[in-house]
Amino acid sequence: MEGSRPATPEAPPENLWSSILDSVSSSRSIPSKQVLLLGPSSSGKSVLASALLQKPVSEESKDETRSDFALGYDWADIRDDGDEDTLARLSVYTVPSDAIAYTTLIPHFLPPRASLPHTLVMIVLDWTRPWTFVDDLQTWLKWVEIWAKGDGSRDLDIVREENHERLQYHLQHYTEPSVDAVPATSNISSNTVLPLGPGTLTHNSAGVPIIVVCTKSDLIDEENDLVGASSSGMGGMVKGKGGEWEERTDGVMQVLRTICLKYGASLFYTTQQPNTLQVLRQYALHLLFIPPAPSLMASGSEGPAPLRNPFIFHHKPNTLDRDRIVVPAGWDSWGKISVLREGFEAKVWGEGWEADLDADVLESEDHSGAKKMYKMLVPDQGAKPPPLPPFNAPMAEQAFLAKHYDENAKKPDRDPRGAFRNPTDTAAAGIVGPLGSSSFNLPNVERALSEMEAGMGMASSLNASTTADGARRLPQRAPTGANVTTHVGRPPSSPTIGTSPSSTGGQTQHEVLQNFFQSLLSSRDRSGAGTTAKSTSPKTNGNTSGTEDTS
């Protein structure tokens, strides 16, 4: 019995619940798709993002003076027609401009190795500034090539090759939608594959799905006699809406289609109307869910059935309605482009584009590229910065001071001290330097000296009258009183100070002022001594009176 007993029971698998949850999540995982919106500011990117996510446009997005984020982000779930199952999660990234401070942030959020097969690039052009189309396209398409290269690792190269094969397979098997219901796999399963036409997918080696969107296309045919006066900002591109106007706008579309053909990109014109935005959204989802290219199998073996795109694009191409152009990738060719307007050579424009990419020059007279040809088609009517004022070379500081010093030295009235100088003094002082002695010849000082001298004369007369009255009261003490009177009533001895320099007896102004203040101090001392004598005289008179009363 014991020998028939089984050995120790088998151990349960580790992380049982984790394996169950992983299997369920993998079977019901929601794929993630990204749309990268590139374009200048105020070009309508916020409206496109709201249309792709089917969200209302916020009031802040409508304000043209708003501040954009360094990298805008929003997302929404993509559901099927019955609104029952979630097919994917769509994320929209918005870049405000082509500044390097903004574009360097994108690889951190969209690394090419992981996001390249699930990312769609949408380049936005603004029809209010048509003269910038070629420049903006060259800037952004160059950046897309650099972003797709990444770090150049071997794994990334494999992803790039698979992505390029998928886009090429999509272009080669494109079929124009028809009224009759045609199975989606009818043309894909066909073994007849036509090669790509000339000028098709010569660039975009990573196979990134690209849509070029020209917004505000309803402003192309705005009713105005002169386009430069309209609110669309077309400038002086053409006059009116005649044949020349249509030729130029058709020429712009031909140039854009030629460039898009080289990158395997599509071209759409949109307005604020919801129907144009809805068509763009349907095509964007169609490109995001392009199935991978079937692998090559050995002869005689049947490969797996190709995957079906859950978002079929049913709209036909449209190159006639100027405000709702629809040119899907894989439909266009040089022949169709040339039919639109005679005289346009797609090959020449393609070679000009290649010359611009190789030379990478901006302003060169001897360089004939797509940029130069496009400027002849659409002159630049953008706002120009005001011209700088002519350069003014200032004079050296020392030369400026020496020049004005010589000029002012010849004008005696430039010296501010002349108002205080005595007119009889002919001594001239320099413009700079210490004050001369003549600067002390101030009329205020002379007037003060005269007034003080007159005041001292009145004080002497008053003292003389007081002394005479005292002498009549005390006749017997006349000698003594006379001595006191002489001491008190004598005017202070001071030098004679005149009102002109001639009264100083040859003295300078400094000596006159010094003698004046010394006389004031001496008169104050003598006035104090006289006051002391007056205070002692009543006592002497009292003693005399007592003697007389005694006798």
How would you portray this structure in words?
With 551 residues, this protein is α/β, with parallel strands linked by helices. It is built from 17 helices and seven strands. Helix 9 packs antiparallel against helix 11, helix 9 (243-263) packs across helix 12 (346-359) and helix 16 packs antiparallel against helix 17 (509-550).
For this entry, give a set of tags.
551 residues, alpha/beta, 7-stranded mixed β-sheet, 17 helices, 7 strands, 43% helix, elongated, disordered C terminus
Quick overview:
By secondary structure, this protein is an alpha/beta fold. It is built from 17 helices and 7 strands.
Helicity, in percent? 40-55%
How many β-strand runs? 7
**Beta-sheet strand percentage?**
5-15%
Q: In DSSP terms, counting alpha (H) and pi (I) runs of 4 or more, how many helices?
A: 17
Detail the poorly predicted runs: 181-190, 223-240, 427-442, 470-504, 538-551
3D shape: elongated
Report Rg: 53 Å
Physical arrangement of strands within the biggest beta sheet: 2-3-1-4-5-6-7
Tell me the distance between the termini. 179 Å
The ordered H/E elements are HEHHEEHHHEHHEHEHEHHHHHHH
- Structural class call reads alpha/beta
Question: What integer is the average pLDDT?
Answer: 74
Main beta sheet strand tally, sense and closure: 7 strands, mixed
